[in-house]
Design a protein that fits this description.
The complex is a heterodimer of chains A (344) and B (98). Chain A has helices at 32-42, 75-84, 102-108, 113-122, 125-128, 146-153, 167-172, 188-205, 207-220, 231-250, 259-266, 268-277, 282-302, 312-338; strands at residues 12-18, 21-26, 55-59, 68-71, 90-94, 133-136, 156-159. Chain A has 344 residues and is an alpha/beta fold. The chains are: A alpha/beta (344), B alpha+beta (98).
């Protein structure tokens, strides 16, 4: 895992002597490697091993009155936090969340009371700062019980802001969380950032289905038009793109509350493509209509986990209702596609 | 959440108004603005917006809130169900879920 903090940590500037020992000072600006790393994790390249060692870091030249900002050891999170602290003196307390972001780690309990209490003791935070306040990301309240942290460590765990970007304003206004700082957003830009990862993971998980489409396409296509062999696989890819890219991008404007409905609706696009290509031949359009919206709906349903507003009970309900419908529809579609192609 | 609404009438959030001391912690930690403090008591004003993260219940000093909180992504829930059904098969492929 993370290992200890040494001179190889990203952005290492030097050591700062504190009553609790040496603390690594880190830069607030990103290097080329940090930019490249951030880009790579957005494309699902090595994102599960993108972490920094947990422990205490120094930004600027903090002293015993400087604020303590707590964050996760997912390097992208850590990078975003140190960058917004540019020009300030602060302590950065990094918890061991095994390279997982704040929200997901708090939900699973790794960004939690126990780890925070343990980490405060391990870095001897009480010897480093004279005050007794630790600033936490607001979304970590899912895993951290503030009053238990206080009774165990004497530190007040204050839930500050949702976004790291609001930290400077929070620090400047005397630790006051304003309305916008506690309000979640899901802007087009935020949704777009999620699309590459979701597409790549869906593609990887769909390789067996794609292989099946290619095999079936090759064996069922008329030999005179070899490109036809690719149609099933292309149609499936179209449905995959609708569910993993189209739904996130168009999310607020697609009909329905359920993600599967939104996905199925958008899945009509590849059906239309099949219709146009086949001159609306029923033997092509019917299987497409049964398979493609179902596939798109499935990928859209998966996107619930990437949004900041779906509930566990809601997703459970949607899975219970929609998954059997999708499964049956897809099976019926495959049957409708294969059956007419066997003579007799 | 402004501009977004998930399924209606599913959230398991419950508030015991008698226990509530009106401290306002729930309103502070809730990222969906589900609570307002009125007459020194918390009030659920937008239950359908609750995403069942559990922050309010965990931090309520009066134990006045309950919610079935947990992993909320589809792949996570499917993995959970799978493991309940086939408990002996440990591990398996990591879900894409964070």
């Amino acid at each position: 895992m993370g290992g200890g903090i040494d001179e190889s940590v990203p952005g290492f500037l030097g050591w700062l002597d504190t009553p609790a020992g040496k603390v690594a000072r880190i830069a607030t600006e990103w290097s080329a490697a940090d930019h490249l790393g951030a880009w790579k994790v957005r494309w699902a390249i090595g994102r599960m091993a993108y972490l920094v060692p947990p422990g205490l870091y120094a930004v600027g030249t903090p002293d015993d009155s400087s604020p303590v900002v707590v964050t996760a050891n997912y390097k992208l999170t850590w990078d975003l936090v140190r960058r917004v602290l540019a020009g300030r003196d602060a302590w950065l307390l990094v918890l061991e969340t095994h390279g997982i972001n704040v929200w997901c780690a708090a939900g699973k309990g790794t960004f939690g009371t126990e780890e925070l209490v343990r980490r405060i003791a391990a870095v001897r935070l009480g010897d480093v700062v004279a005050h007794r306040t630790a600033l936490l990301p607001l979304l970590s309240a899912t895993g951290v019980c503030s009053r238990e942290v206080r009774s165990a460590t004497g530190f007040e765990a204050r839930f500050a802001t949702i976004r790291a970007a609001d930290l400077p304003e929070y620090l400047d206004n005397g630790f006051r969380t304003t309305g916008p700082m506690r309000r979640l957003t899901f802007t087009l830009r935020e949704r777009m950032a999620l699309v590459p990862v979701d597409c790549i993971l869906a593609l990887a998980a769909s390789l067996p289905v794609l292989a099946g489409c290619l095999l079936a396409g090759a064996s069922l296509a008329k030999s005179s038009r070899s490109v036809e062999a690719l149609f099933p696989a292309l149609s499936f890819l179209g449905a995959l793109l609708c569910g993993t890219a189209g739904v996130p991008l168009l999310l607020p404007w697609l009909p329905g509350r359920a993600f599967s409905i939104k996905g199925a609706f958008l899945g009509l696009l590849p059906v239309a493509a099949v219709g146009v290509e086949s001159a609306w031949a029923i033997r092509s359009v019917l299987p497409a209509l049964l398979c493609l919206p179902a596939a798109s709906a499935f990928f859209a349903l998966n996107f619930t986990g990437s949004t900041p507003y779906t509930s566990r009970s809601g997703v459970k309900k949607e899975i219970r209702r929609a998954l059997p419908v999708m499964g049956l529809s897809a099976l019926a579609g495959v049957a409708a596609w294969v059956a007419p192609r066997f003579p007799g | 959440m402004r501009g977004y609404a998930y399924l209606k009438d599913v959230a398991t959030l419950a508030l015991n108004r008698e226990r509530c001391t009106g401290c306002g912690v729930c309103a502070h930690v809730c990222p969906q603005q589900v609570f307002v403090i009125r007459d020194r008591k918390s009030k659920i004003v937008d239950r359908d917006a609750c995403m069942e993260c559990g922050a309010c219940a965990l931090n309520c000093p009066a134990d006045a809130l309950s919610v079935d909180a947990g992993v909320g992504c589809a792949s996570g829930i499917l993995t959970e169900w799978w493991r309940e059904r086939f408990p002996r098969k440990r591990g398996g492929p990591a879900s894409g879920c964070c």
